[in-house]
Amino acid sequence: MYWKKKTKPPEFTLKDVTIAKALPFLSVTITPDVYLITGTGAQTIVHKIDNKSPFAVVVKVLATAPARFTISKNNFFIEGNSSSSIQIKLKTGAVRSHRLDLLFLPCIDTLNPNWKANPCIAFNSSYKPIIRHI
Length: 134
Description:
Domain MSP: 28-94
CATH topology: Immunoglobulin-like
Number of domains: 1
CATH superfamily: Immunoglobulins
Number of helices: 1
InterPro entries: Ig-like_fold, MSP_dom, PapD-like_sf
Mean pLDDT: 76
Helix content: under 10%
Structural class: mainly beta
Protein name: MSP domain-containing protein
Distance between the termini: 20 Å
CATH class: Mainly Beta
Low-confidence stretches: 8-14
Strand order of the largest sheet: 1-2-6-4
Largest sheet: 4 strands, antiparallel
CATH architecture: Sandwich
């Protein structure tokens, strides 16, 4: 995990848990991990996100062309050792290069208990998320 240059990583002493210590255990897979656009018609694809980490993660989904994509869930969390699915709909139009960015942050109850209730506030924090591209 990389921290913003202006901010030093916080030191947490609650049960000796820190976000920095949690990151090596962050294991998330996305299936399928490629978004293949075929033709100019509308398309729908479901991506399954598996969280194999022992803790929950908060997820934010962004599209490079938000007017063209409809995303079923933009901000959500996934419990540890579980999965969730998101549905992506691509509207009709010319084929162009598009990308979906999925941002992940570990969600540890003792450090940030309010992230599960409101996942979008996690990405307003000083923590830099891990990003996966589709």
